[in-house]
Design a protein that fits this description.
35% of the residues lie in helices and 18% in strands. The chain has 435 residues and is of the alpha/beta class. The protein folds into 2 domains: 124 residues, Urease, subunit C, domain 1, CATH 2.30.40.10; 294 residues, Metal-dependent hydrolases (TIM Barrel), CATH 3.20.20. Helix 3 links the parallel strand 7 and strand 8.
């Protein structure tokens, strides 16, 4: 991604008809005005009713109320009366699996950027080819390379195995050299090796995240961990040590023990107990990013997911309720919540996981604006890209979604997507919606 122009430079470039740096060969910068639209800018600020967004080329030139932002000459005006514009959603936890079209389907749902949480680059070749073939500007893709796990990895095909801190450090270095914009630690990596990976990330100023499960959240956050994947990563940090160790040994003996075990841990956890309070204190101090991925863990007592043992169904529903409560608690303690859809989840249709995640964040106690902020400006800050995209502000990339309804009143309105723009260009929503 090219360097940003200052807002003033963008305006000057627009005024004299020059393309901003990085926009390629197009000589003329097209100026587009989205007019009379309700604006949710992604910062958490109250919506602007009757707003005006001026897009010059790839970037946003001006944002404000129609009274404050003059209509530029020779602009193409789109009347969006009654509609809402907000920044494109950022999915901080998107598994491409073997389904590159899923990324384009999510794009039609307003997801203009995603971060892969650990996968070989080879898995993205087909998606990049499709994007290039269509001349698409997005979705913006942030990859991590294979996640770094210890011996007997949980997902062998997606992992590199590090047997000691030196191997872990070298694996992280190799991922960074290969273009990773984040690194993910997996839970079988011992603490000293995880710490070595964190140090590589911090040296390169890229986010380091971890699926903790049997690693201790408090220790790793203290060691400089930037982000935590899954609210379940806190399981062993919120129960008494004897119980945490029992769960830890079960998962170390069999990676699959976590599938039921994490719900049992959460169902029993005391969110006001001494362990939980010690966790909140660390979060308050270090303010890591937390990608709860609630939608993938959602379980309902009245609608069991295939394969759940009947006795486990109520335990899973109770455990999930506690996961939602803990999501709210860690947010109140100071963790910075982001939105991770996790691609395929039990109670959402294909491509709709990010919408379900936003609904579950609100169901957990966030306001709709807080949930939108998690999926926009906070996610961009998580990637160290807050000065490039993630909010509707002058000088930023024009990544945005136009909705028929107002999601600041009802978060489910994120489902009412009419238009999607990436880098100043409208996406073919109808076409990608069929993918
Ligand atoms: Zn994970
Ligand atoms: Zn995942």
């Amino acid at each position: 991604m090219g360097k940003l122009l200052s807002p003033a430079a963008v305006l000057i470039a627009a005024a004299v008809g020059l393309a901003p740096v990085g926009s390629g060969a197009r000589a003329q910068t097209r100026t587009l005005v989205l007019d009379q639209v309700r604006i949710i800018d992604g910062t958490g600020a109250a919506p602007i009713e009757h707003g005006r967004i001026v897009v010059a080329g790839e970037r946003i030139a001006r944002v404000g109320s129609v009274d404050a932002v003059p209509m530029p000459a020779d602009a193409e005006r789109v009347d969006l009366t009654g509609r809402t514009a907000m920044p494109g959603l950022i999915d901080s936890h998107f598994h491409i699996e073997n389904d590159p079209k899923l990324a384009l389907r999510q794009l039609s749902h307003g997801v203009t950027s995603f971060r892969d949480p650990g996968q070989w680059d080879e898995k993205f070749v087909e998606l990049r080819r499709m994007i290039a073939a269509d001349g698409l500007p997005g979705p913006r893709i942030f990859t991590a390379g294979p996640h770094i796990d210890g011996e007997h990895p949980a997902y062998p095909a997606d992992a590199v195995v590090a047997r000691d801190p030196d191997e872990a450090r070298r694996a992280a270095d190799t991922n960074v050299r290969s273009g990773a914009s984040a690194i993910k630690i997996y839970f079988r990596l011992p603490f000293a090796s995880a710490k070595a990976v964190i140090d590589v990330c911090n040296a390169h100023h890229i986010p380091c995240t971890a699926h903790l499960e049997v690693l201790d959240a408090r220790e790793l956050i203290d060691a400089g961990l930037h982000g935590i994947e899954h609210i379940t990563s806190f399981g062993t940090s919120i129960v008494p040590r004897v119980e945490a160790e029992r769960y830890r040994q079960a998962v170390l003996a069999d990676n699959n023990a976590r599938r039921d075990g994490r719900y049992q841990v959460f169902a029993r956890a005391d969110l006001d107990g001494p362990e939980a309070r010690a966790l909140y204190a660390v979060l308050r101090e270090r303010r890591p990013f937390v990608d709860a991925t609630l939608a993938v863990f959602e379980r309902r007592a009245d609608k069991a997911v295939d394969g759940a043992a009947p006795a486990m169904v109520p335990v899973m529903a109770a455990g999930f309720g506690k996961m939602q409560q803990l999501t709210r608690r860690v947010g109140l303690a100071g963790a910075r919540l982001v939105m991770g859809g996790h691609s395929t989840v039990p109670y959402a249709a294909r491509g709709e996981a990010p919408w379900r995640e936003l609904e579950l964040l609100v169901d957990s106690g966030l306001t709709p604006l807080e949930a939108i902020t998690a999926a926009t400006s906070t996610a961009a800050a998580f990637f160290y890209r807050g000065d490039e995209f993630g909010t509707l502000g002058a000088g930023l990339e024009a990544d945005l979604v136009v909705l028929a309804r107002d999601p600041s009143r009802d978060i489910s309105a994120v489902r009412s997507v009419e238009r999607v723009m990436v880098g100043g260009r409208w996406i073919d929503v109808a076409r990608y919606g069929k993918y």
